[in-house]
C-alpha cells in the first residue's frame, strides 16, 4: 500500500498543527465476499511483530518527540466502579496539561500545545467531563452499549448512545456482540454496528472487538472488516477488562484490515489499542507499527489513539529523565 495522502491533500487537513480526518466513514453495503480468503497465518504474524522492536530504534531527542506525540494520542481513561465526578474532573485537568510545565519548558515546548487526544468515561460522567474540558478542544469519549460485556438489549444500547451524544460526547466507544463473531453471524454483526453508527449522529464511532474474547486472528480480521463496512470510524482492540487485551499480533491484523479497507474504499479508518499499553517502551513499538504498516498520517490522534491511563505517568517520567538525566519515582507523576 502507498503512503496515506499527505497533510496537504483534501483528505488530511491541518488543525492546530495536527492532521484532521474530516470525512466520516459512510460504510458500504454488506458483502460477505469481502471475507473470502481472510485467513491469518499466525506464525507469519508472530515473525513480523517480533521485528518491530529491532528494526528501528528511536533515541534521545527523537524519542522525546515520539513520546510527546504519543501523549497527544492518549484517550485518558477512567472506567472504574468507584469513579466519582471529582475523579473525572481531576482527570480532565490532567488531560489539559498532561506533562508538567517545567518538563515542557526544558524541551522548548509551549505547555498549551500538548493535550491528550480525548478523555474516556462512562455515560454517567459525560456531562461533567464536557464541562471540565470546555474551551480545550479535547473531545469526550463515552463507552457505551452495555460496556464491557455488551449483553444488554439492543434498544437500550441505542438509547445509551443517544443519551451520551445528547450530553456532549463526540466519540462513542461501542462493544460488539461477541456471539456474532464466534458463530460467524456476520450479517447480524453488520446490522448491529450499522444501527450504532446511525445512533451516533455526528459523534465518531469506535468499535471495540474485544479481541481477547473472539479467540482467533482470523476472527479478528473478519470482525475488523465487518465493523468498517458498517461505518466504524475507528476499530479498537479491547475494553481493557478482558483477560488478554491489546497485543502486537492482533494489532498487526487489525491495521492490515484498515489498509485493505483503505485500498478498497479510499476511506481512512483509525486504530486504537487499549489495555496493556502501559510503558513508554511499549507505546513506541505501537507507533513504529503504525508508521511502517499504514504511514505517517496514522501517528496523529485523528487516526491513532491509545486507551490508557498509567501510560501517561511513565511517559512523563521518561521525558523528565531526558531533560534531567535522572529517573524520578512514579508518585511524582500522578495521572490525576
Fold blueprint:
Blueprint: E1 13-15, E2 18-20, H1 42-50, H2 52-55, H3 60-71, E3 74-77, H4 85-96, H5 101-107, E4 118-122, H6 126-132, E5 140-143, H7 154-166, E6 171-175, H8 178-182, H9 186-200, E7 204-208, H10 217-229, E8 234-236, H11 248-265, E9 270-272, H12 280-293, E10 306-308, H13 310-324
Parallel strand pairs: 3-4, 3-10, 4-5, 5-6, 6-7, 7-8, 8-9
Antiparallel strand pairs: 1-2
General description of the model:
The protein is an alpha/beta fold. The chain has one domain: TIM Barrel. The chain is 43% helix and 11% strand. The protein contains 13 helices and ten strands. The strands form two sheets. Strands 9-8-7-6-5-4-3-10 form an eight-stranded parallel β-sheet. Strands 1-2 form a two-stranded antiparallel sheet. Strand 4, helix 6 and strand 5 form a beta-alpha-beta unit. Helix 7 packs parallel to helix 9, helix 9 crosses helix 10 and helix 10 packs parallel to helix 11. It is globular and about 55 Å long. It starts with 12 loop residues before the first strand and ends in a 12-residue tail after the last helix. The N terminus is likely disordered.
